[in-house]
Write a structure and sequence with these properties.
Length: 484
Amino acid sequence: MVEESQVAFETAPTPLETAPAPLEVRPPREVSLFWRTFFLLAMLLLGCFVAWLQTFRALEFEPRVLQSAQQIASLVNLSRAALVHSDSIARVSLVKTLADEEDVRIAPREPSDTYLSYDTDSLTRSVSQRLKARLGEDTIVAREVNGTPGLWVGFTIDGDPYWLLTDPSRLGIVTGKTWLIWLATGAGLSLAGAAIIARLINNPLKKLSFAASRVREGDFSSSKLNETVATSEIREVNIGFNRMAQRLSKIEQDRALMLAGISHDLRTPLARLRLETEMSVDDPQAREHMAADIDQVNAIIDKFLDYARPDQIKSESVNLNQVVDAAIFSLGNDPNLAVTTRIPPDTMVMGDAVELQRIFTNLMENAQRYGREPITGVCRVEIAAKAKDNWILVKLRDHGKGVPPELLPQLTQPFFRGDASRSSAKGTGLGLAIVERAVQRLGGRFALANSSTGGLAAHMKLRKARPDKAGDRQDPEEMPAQTT
């Protein structure tokens, strides 16, 4: 066992936050299928609404307004003729009758009158031009005279100027807030319809996505989709997916049964072979080598079983210090192994205690096998952890030779053991692959990187079980080191 000064950090370890990027990279701009379908349908409905409005304007609205303008011109001409050919007493009675029964008011036009021209848009300008063409170029068409709104038509009778006031609704033009109300109603109904259609389209795909995620997590029983839906295409997809999930479930059951059978069938003759070796071989050295080979075969079987372990894990609150201590204890008393831990007290993570112990055991076995210092032959392992947001960041590093950067992504691949020196060592190449799968099953992330001061560093991001206490928020650098 080396002294504590030998295992202290030579320099501050690389911050845990600087671990390699997450394995899953999402696109920078992500839009759900519901909103994408909704926007496309909304644009389609809006385009149809505008096209309908323009068609109505061209085929119905403008001709009706122009026809109304012709009627107003006829009303002005008839009023002018009636006033010209009536005496003064009959003229007064005629003006009163027009105001009461036809809502047409005729009044003298004074030079001091102020008015606003009836030319607010192309349609009103067209009406004004049509009235002037029928009544003469000296005709005035106004929308307001002396502050009084309405449709005012200025004409002359025997050289005397007059105003004729009538209701603008005679033209069939919808004014004021009526257009806004109709537009808002049409837009609201269109958007509501687009939302309903988008939800109807998105709902089966959302269920399919959820079922696929459950199958990915190994929960085949919760992934059954409705096979009686009315839509034939969706029904066929659901039936195909359910059959696929059933097939995968059967394959998973067969795999578990096969692994259990292989384990049982291999361990029994190996145990028998070990017993016979110890009893029949006289040479102690040969007996020791044969026993070591049998132990190696048992270890390889364990690695295969760990890698092929099902994905279902029941997470619970686990004390990280206890897990690490148990993993260190399982390595035995190796005089060339020194483990330094910097983990805040009562650091709790969500996971399975056995699975977490398997993770740390595999990492320390990997460091023990490949991470020895070239000169002293001592393996120094440093484990640090700290809380950040809803995660516990863990870093485990050795002081060996490290790994060429181009080989780092391949270290977590099954049966990959790096360079020639590593390939010559005994092992299956499954240790780091098991660690990565186990961390992912626990809902965390795992990555490897070379340390700036030498050696290989494993970065883990585990889910935090509960909010930290005040004393748990210390940085790993500030915690007293514990050496085993």
